[in-house]
Design a protein that fits this description.
The chain has 360 residues and is of the alpha/beta class. It has eleven helices and 20 strands. The protein has two domains: 193 residues, Quinone Oxidoreductase, Chain A, domain 1, CATH 3.90.180; 137 residues, NAD(P)-binding Rossmann-like Domain (Rossmann fold), CATH 3.40.50.720. The strands form four sheets. Strands 4, 6, 7, 11, 12, 19 and 20 form a seven-stranded mixed beta sheet that branches. The longest helix is centred in the last third of the chain and has 13 residues. The structure holds nicotinamide-adenine-dinucleotide (NAD) and zinc ion (2 copies).
């Protein structure tokens, strides 16, 4: 099958043929229908996070089940599914305390002495996030997917695989935004726009979108922002404090920078909570004013929106079909796998929301 291979930091991905194994007892072979291009993939290409190469990146996808392992009863060939990198074992401490998105059990992967899921002429090709969506097929654990209704278009379903689950989930689950509250979202890419959309659904009273690209701020309004701040026109923190008369109750950082993570904390009113979603480069430290904790300001991380994706994703599909989640507007470009490097170049400009690879 055709896949985009990541071989070296800073180099373009290469479209090559690789082989994919057959499903083991608890595995499912999925034909990829669509895969979104997320900034997290780019962080690995840029070497800001370590990865073992060669590797097939990609982790935001939807597709159709082709084959299932002998023990799989949850799905059958022909079922439509969304994949999720929050693969859960179902019986570890994290899973059993309701934190399935933090499960790190090794049993959802193949052992090193087993045949690898992906290979090229007998040599291992590493699977990214137990998924590797930049390929025509995926071989994944049965707990890395959710079955969905068949009237949901698969290109838009793919967005739920990461951006939407992360952004909306961070609002609903990690921060638990209350109706009427004030929210600021820094960074209006696929993830930030999903935070804004989630905050609107949650009934936030004021939603301030912050970006440096005007077209993104215009999109943010379509997704539910009540106010916009262009970070290149002076201090964003000061502007948010002025707009809200003292700061927001909830802030979300959806870029992955030291400065904007600090800004997220500094724009809180007393008692507020900053949620850091962006992947801040490994080794980078952020600095906060210690005295600010005395007014009960909080800062926390969010991984994949603290999801329970088999419950969340079908609900998000209903939101989309009811017109509440703006997935049509989130797809800026539909591309072929061969155009993947262009999608990363576009991403670096900040001008697009999401590029989605659509497979024939
Ligand atoms: N925590 C998680 O589970 C999780 C999941 C998915 C993505 N992420 C991370 O979330 C971040 C956002 O991902 P994305 O795919 O939405 O990215 P993206 O590249 O699509 O969007 C980033 C946005 O930030 C804006 N921006 C860049 N620098 C800015 C600055 N200094 N001030 C204001 N705006 C600025 C850009 O214009 C763009 O609109 C990335 O770091 C990604 O790795 C984390
Ligand atoms: Zn992602
Ligand atoms: Zn577990």
């Amino acid at each position: 099958m055709k896949a985009a291979i990541f071989r070296e930091v800073g180099q373009p991905l290469e479209i090559e043929n690789i082989s994919i194994s057959k499903p083991g007892p608890r595995e499912v072979l999925v034909r990829t229908a669509a895969a979104g291009v997320c900034h997290s993939d780019l962080h690995f290409i840029e070497g800001l996070y370590p990865a073992q190469t060669p590797m097939v990146l990609g982790h935001e996808s939807a597709g159709i089940v082709e084959q299932v392992g002998s023990d799989v009863t949850y799905v059958k060939p022909g079922d439509h599914v969304i994949t999720c990198l929050s693969v859960f074992c179902g019986h570890c401490e994290q899973c059993l305390t309701g934190h399935m998105s933090l499960c790190s059990s090794a049993e959802v992967r193949r052992d090193q002495d087993e045949e690898p899921r992906l290979a090229q002429e007998g040599t291992l090709v590493n699977q990214f996030a137990n998924l590797s969506s930049f390929a025509e097929q995926m071989l994944i654990h049965e707990h890395a997917l959710v079955k969905i209704r068949e009237d949901m278009p698969l290109d838009r379903a793919a967005l739920l695989g990461c951006a939407v689950t992360t952004g909306v989930g961070s609002v609903f689950h990690t921060a638990a935004v209350e109706p009427g509250s004030t929210v600021a979202v820094i960074g209006c890419g696929g993830v930030g726009l999903s935070c804004i959309n989630g905050a609107a659904i949650a009934g936030a009273g004021r939603i301030i979108a912050i970006d440096m690209v005007d077209s993104k701020l215009a999109m943010a309004k379509e997704f539910g922002a009540t106010d916009i701040v262009n970070g290149s026109n002076g201090d964003a923190v000061q502007q948010v404090i002025e707009l809200t008369g003292g700061g927001v109750q909830y802030s979300f950082e959806a870029i992955g920078l030291k400065q904007t993570a600090e800004d997220a904390f500094n724009m809180l009113r007393a008692g507020g909570a900053a949620t850091i979603i962006g992947m801040i480069p490994v080794g980078t430290k952020i600095e906060l004013m210690g005295a600010a904790f005395l007014q009960e300001r909080k800062i926390q991380g969010s991984f994949m929106g603290s999801n329970r994706f088999r419950i969340d994703m079908p609900r998000f599909i209903d939101f989309y079909l009811q017109g509440k989640l703006h997935l049509d507007q989130m797809i800026s470009k539909r591309i072929q796998l061969e155009q993947i490097n262009e999608a990363f170049a576009d991403m670096k400009t900040g001008a697009l929301a999401r590029s989605v690879i659509v497979f024939d």
